[in-house]
């Protein structure tokens, strides 16, 4: 079934339900059927994967921050800063 046929079938079903239950446009509007959907919930902040003693953090995504690069270049293991 194509998207156009599915849409037409859905419209016919809605029309049948409206007729079967004697619904009016005003009743559907009052019930909020045409209200816009609520905005999506904000995304949670990224989990902290690495943290130093000063409280600087990195979630492990994107380029490594300068504080961690300096530590690694000085011979420290990245795993030393793993949070958790």
TrEMBL record:
Residues 50-79 form the DNA-binding protein H-NS-like C-terminal domain. One of its GO terms (molecular function) is DNA binding. Pfam families: Histone_HNS. InterPro entries: H-NS_C_dom, H-NS_C_dom_sf. This is H-NS histone family protein. It comes from Cupriavidus lacunae.
